[in-house]
């Protein structure tokens, strides 16, 4: 589902050059659930952003579901992200002025679906994460774990084949973190390919495979 070949990412300013990723070669198979680990600043989030087509590599090849994307226009990249990818962030990124169900519907606004279809898909996604009774609440009325479940519902509402999760349990206690990972495992068992950045060894052990980074280089 995701293939990276000789991927490098360099950030440049007028006075300094920082090598964030160096010669990354990685295959993520359909239906895999993999973890990415490493010390702070080693390039984990940069790698996830490149996989999610949110950032461009300085060099190298990216394939998503067999398609090379380096020559895609921004419009085509946006379409691919919306159709194939779902994103879960550590900080939730919910819109406080919108209800839970309206937050979940956001990715569907960029598709040619009706208001009724959007509402039905959002309700279905919230049911999957156990928040059917919170649809009309607002983010400020939710706990951290509930906010993360809303974020997961938003990520899966469009039925993406790939879910990219950046520290999805990082702001949660261990009990709620386990609940969130249970949901991710259930989505994986349902066919989703998942790549998760984590700092938690216990969470990583529950995934199929571990990728380790150190100073931007893949060491495992």
UniProtKB/TrEMBL annotation:
Q: Which PROSITE patterns does UniProt cross-reference here?
A: ABC_TRANSPORTER_1, ABC_TRANSPORTER_2
Q: Which residues form the ABC transporter domain?
A: 2-219
Report whether Transmembrane helix shows up as a keyword of the record. no
Record's GO cellular component terms: membrane protein complex
| Keywords on record | ATP-binding, Nucleotide-binding, Translocase, Transport
Task: Show the GO MF annotations.
Answer: ATP binding; ATP hydrolysis activity; transmembrane transporter activity
Q: Which residues form a coiled coil?
A: none
Q: Which Pfam families match?
A: ABC_tran
Q: Which PANTHER family match?
A: CELL DIVISION ATP-BINDING PROTEIN FTSE, LIPOPROTEIN-RELEASING SYSTEM ATP-BINDING PROTEIN LOLD
Q: Which family, according to the similarity comment?
A: Belongs to the ABC transporter superfamily. Macrolide exporter (TC 3.A.1.122) family.
Record's protein name: ABC transporter ATP-binding protein
State the organism named in the record: Dyadobacter psychrotolerans
